[in-house]
Design goal:
With 174 residues, this protein is an all-alpha fold. The chain folds into two domains: 41 residues, no CATH class; 116 residues, no CATH class. Helices cover 82% and strands 0% of the residues. The chain is globular. The relative contact order is 0.09.
């Protein structure tokens, strides 16, 4: 029950607001319907891919390619995985938990999440056609630098105990 307390509180607040302000009810309910449909279209394929990753890729292989000693190779794999991934950012977090459970380094996981959120290939192609190569490649270069800096800042700011706690939490997720 503790796990869902925030959801329950927000549901109560939402119900209170739509009862007190009925003029907003239709828009609020339509927004919720749209979000639920959107999630139902995105989440199942992501979980299918996660299940396949969990079964097909052995932990030792993930640790070799994306673990602590993977250096630039692991960062490139994380970046490519994030850039070619489809779906909204909330889809990246279950994927990141599986990467963590499989032994990927915290830096590579942060690079993956950063790439998923900012360097989508379709977005880059849209920017090239809409705003030109110069803008698109400049933004991409700035994003790559920012992703790397943030990933290393997160790694430095977390203690080994914090990282162990995150890994333990990821391993409990089914």
């Amino acid at each position: 029950m503790r796990r869902y307390i925030l959801f329950i509180i927000m549901t109560i607040i939402f119900l209170f607001v739509i009862l007190v302000f009925p003029a907003y009810r239709d828009n609020a309910l339509e927004s919720i319907r749209h979000q639920v449909v959107s999630m139902l279209l995105v989440i199942p394929p992501i979980f299918i891919l996660l299940g396949l990753l969990d079964v097909w890729v052995p932990r030792e292989q993930m640790m070799r390619y994306m673990g602590e000693g993977s250096s630039v190779k692991g960062a490139l794999i994380a970046f490519v995985l994030g850039s070619f991934a489809a779906g909204p950012l909330y889809g990246a977090f279950p994927f990141a938990a599986v990467l963590m459970k499989k032994g990927a380094s915290i830096t590579n996981i942060m690079i993956f999440i950063g790439a998923w959120s900012t360097t989508k290939l379709p977005m880059l192609l849209f920017e090239v056609t809409s705003m030109g190569y110069r803008f698109a490649l400049s933004r991409l270069a700035i994003d790559i630098i920012g992703i790397i800096l943030i990933a290393y800042a997160v790694k430095v700011s977390l203690s080994p105990k914090d990282i162990e706690r995150l890994i333990a939490k990821a391993e409990t997720i089914d």
